[in-house]
Design brief:
Blueprint (H helix, E strand, L loop, with lengths): L5 E5 L8 H17 L2 E4 L5 H12 L4 E6 L3 H4 L2 H5 L3 E5 L2 H11 L2 E4 L4 H15 L7 E4 L6 H12 L6 H4 L2 E3 L5 H6 L15 E2 L1
Parallel strand pairs: 1-2, 1-5, 2-3, 3-4, 5-6, 6-7, 7-8
Helix pairs in contact: 1-2
């Protein structure tokens, strides 16, 4: 069983066009708060980012927001940041991502844009290079991440993902399954294998 005390959630700073995505953010945040799991996220007060943070706080949980100085006016405000359990203001995006990584025991990608995609791919890349073994989970709400999952399979089939067991994300279709699946994660039995497929629930 994994010792998951904090989860870094990557997600959109916009609400998106599908109400199911905001609903999933609230459901995940509520489950995390009730389970005593600390949220680490990008510090934004808007969109899916704001929804998941608000839900964690409303459920009695703690939230760490990590945001670059230049994004505060765009994604949050000084007043909004004070509602968080703690806030770290970084100088740039690279520092932000490093701090988020260091404070998280697992990573979850809710629906989002290219920033969300870039962040989840980066932690997958670090896993492939053997830099960490923290669980990575993709919340495939209403099939949002189907194109990415198909691309990962294509890259594997074409021989460009040489350690799929390290890269392989967990995949769930329902937000209610995220926390239970992460808490049930065990250490990989064959970390050097290359025949793994994507786990779906």
């Amino acid at each position: 069983m994994a010792d998951i005390r904090s989860i870094c959630v990557y997600c959109g700073s916009q609400p998106g066009n599908n109400a199911a995505h905001m609903t999933a953010a609230i459901e995940l945040g509520t489950a995390m708060g009730k389970s005593g799991i600390h949220l680490v996220y990008g510090g934004g007060a808007k969109g899916i980012m704001g929804a998941v943070a608000d839900a964690v706080l409303a459920s009695g949980g703690e939230v760490t927001g990590i945001i670059p100085q230049f994004l505060i006016a765009k994604e949050a405000s000084q007043m909004a940041l004070t509602r968080l359990s703690e806030t770290f203001v970084t100088q740039n995006m690279h520092e932000r991502k490093h701090e988020m990584f260091e404070r998280a025991d697992a990573f979850v990608a809710l629906p989002g844009g290219i920033g969300t995609l870039e962040e989840i791919i980066e932690v997958m890349t670090w896993a492939q290079l053997g830099r960490h073994e923290k669980p990575i989970l993709i919340a495939n709400i209403d099939g949002f991440w189907n194109p990415l999952l198909a691309l990962l399979d294509h890259m594997r089939d074409e021989g460009f993902i040489h350690t799929m067991s390290r890269v392989r994300p967990l995949v769930v279709e329902n937000a209610a399954d995220i926390v239970p699946m992460l808490l049930a994660v065990k250490e990989p039995a064959n970390p050097e294998g290359d025949e793994a497929t994507i786990d779906r629930l």
